[in-house]
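Field reference: "sequence" (input) and "structure" (output). Example, Leucine carboxyl methyltransferase 1:
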Amino acid sequence: MGDEPVMATNDDASECKRGAVQLGYWNDKYIQYFVKHVEKRAPEINRGYYARVKGIETFVQKFISKAGSSAQILNFGSGFDTLYWKLKDEGIQIANFVEVDFPSVTAKKCYLIKKNKPLLDRIYDQDGEVKLSATDIHAGNYHCIGADIRNINQLEVKLHQAEVDFNRPTLFIAECVLVYIENDCVNKLLSWISSKFKTGLFINYEMCNINDTFGDVMLGNLKARGCNMAGIAYCKNVESQKSRFLNNGWMGAKAWDMVQIYYSIPENERQRIERIEFLDEKELLIQLFQHYCICLGWLSPEFADFNFNCSDN
């Protein structure tokens, strides 16, 4: 079966995000170009994705505020993520934005970008030059590259093609990516990053606290879909999530489960999204939030004071 079931998780996550956007949880006018088919999801799922998106975007904004226009963003396992277009619409200037995924996934993304003018128009640089291949796009400060992040040599070649500057402050993002990768490959990746990049921050969204009945059900569902959870050992708790960074040359790490993230969102914003769909039983939502976390790892001291607070970007 190989990597196909893992690639399919991109389609599922993208459909969930589009469904939540349609209901009004957050605004994203670009997701519609990547996802056409949407099935109704349970309110707990929609709120879970809302917290995930809100949490990651909060730390993205904090990073850019600190690093400024020289910042780079590398999104590993980016799938059909639309962050680049949203930042562009907000007028946020960064030096470079690179999306990395399996070539078969980036091939689909490249096709959809070419096909949809609103996506294509936003990636042009001043000269309007776009370099395209079957799996890659290079356009101004936007790059979508097909690479297997388990293969460091291939990844490094591709990052050079995407004009990545290893001396710039760099934000690394991974959403439910590392859990599907063998531990030694993750360790090599994190160790390579810490030795190669001068300064940076890693945002990792992933499972945690999986050693209970609820975790067993979650893992059972994923395994039934053929997903090999090769990196599940680090999802034991938030401490194990942090240890991955601390053991591979990173200066420090912090982690919060999604209960903490959700209840740090300003109350008026939480009330707004809680009015969208009636939730009969909050216990399931809390259980879901307890089994996911956001972990930060940093390479340099300027990012060590980051905490989660949606209201102080």
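The chain is about 45% helix and 15% strand.
Residues 4-312 form a domain with the Rossmann fold fold (CATH 3.40.50.150).
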